[in-house]
Amino acid sequence: MAKKIGVLTSGGDAPGMNAAVRAVCRTALQRGMEVVGIERGYNGLLNGEIVEMNARTVSGIIQRGGTCLYTARCPEFKTKEGVAKGAEKCREIGLDGIVVIGGDGSFRGAADLSSMGIPCIGLPGTIDNDISCTEYTIGYDTAMNTAMEMIDKIKDTAQSHDRCSVVEVMGRNAGYIAVNVGVAVGAEAVITPEKDYDLDAICTKIQNTMKSGKNHFVVVVAEGVGKTDEITKIISEKTGVETRATILGHVQRGGSPTVRDRVVATQMGHHAVELLEKGIGNRVVGMKDNHVYDVDIQEALSMKKPFEEELYGILNETAF
Ligand code: ADP
Ligand code: F6P
């Protein structure tokens, strides 16, 4: 039975992380445990950046983007010595477990710490939705809505100038944001790292669409493709349509979380504490068939997430 637990956020921040921190803190207090916040991810654990938490520490954060615990990337934690130092720190502080909110990299650290006797629970927090063991990651919905709103605005000006806009959305290695946002904005094409693409076919589609009277276009490119400028240049040259690139960037990581992100973060944070309360560690909390569940971290890291083939097909059939 855990008596004192810690919570940290690690890797890239995501809207809804605060809601998860709040849920962890309040659930733990409700169940009679002590809670501390560990600032700046594993860095803060190694450096002893520990803050006591009470019910009021997490007041007024559910609606805020970013993470009140700050986040960081900590190369030292990828070493055996770093993890051993982290486990020693946990013992010094008297921690019986840690909730780690982050992505796959953060879960690897959580697995290592669990293997050194500190039970850790991973919560999926990343805008990319690229964590295989879960249908949904905290931050995804907010990021998609932000990207959609930004592209709607870009469309206004593209339409006024008869231009094609190539918009790069985030997604380090994944096209989930790109495909969903592409459908939501009615993009003519979406280019993602998971699928081969044919720029000639995209240009022909644009030219055929022009014959039906349309003179403005949107092409969404996932960051992971890594060729936004090149794609923009080729579309411009092949179609003769003035084509501009916009990289949305970090705007997608900020902002007030949507209902979905706040609710899922709260459910997952609550579930994580229930596991630690029972002394269970080395698990990742995820969503399966729209329900919160948990899975062994190693198993979670070995899973493969399917690409949204059906949605990608629908997009290509409906945008012209
Ligand atoms: P994310 O958690 O979003 O995937 P990173 O890959 O940057 O982000 O990982 C966040 C942090 O998790 C790293 O800075 C490091 O401290 C820790 N981490 C990543 N990979 C490992 C690993 N293989 N072993 C231990 N800790 C790791
Ligand atoms: O994983 C989330 C994410 O925003 C990716 O989409 C992006 O590639 C990466 O983080 C960028 O991270 P940073 O700008 O913090 O280095």
From TrEMBL:
Keywords: Allosteric enzyme, ATP-binding, Cytoplasm, Glycolysis, Kinase, Magnesium, Metal-binding, Nucleotide-binding, Transferase. ATP binds at residues 12, 73-74, 103-106. Substrate binds at residues 126-128, 163, 170-172, 223, 244, 250-253. The keyword Signal does not apply. Its cofactor is Mg(2+). Pathway: Carbohydrate degradation; glycolysis; D-glyceraldehyde 3-phosphate and glycerone phosphate from D-glucose: step 3/4. ADP binds at residues 22-26, 155, 186-188, 214-216. It is found in: Cytoplasm. Pfam families: PFK (PF00365). Homotetramer. Catalyzes the phosphorylation of D-fructose 6-phosphate to fructose 1,6-bisphosphate by ATP, the first committing step of glycolysis. This is ATP-dependent 6-phosphofructokinase. It comes from Ruminococcus albus (strain ATCC 27210 / DSM 20455 / JCM 14654 / NCDO 2250 / 7).
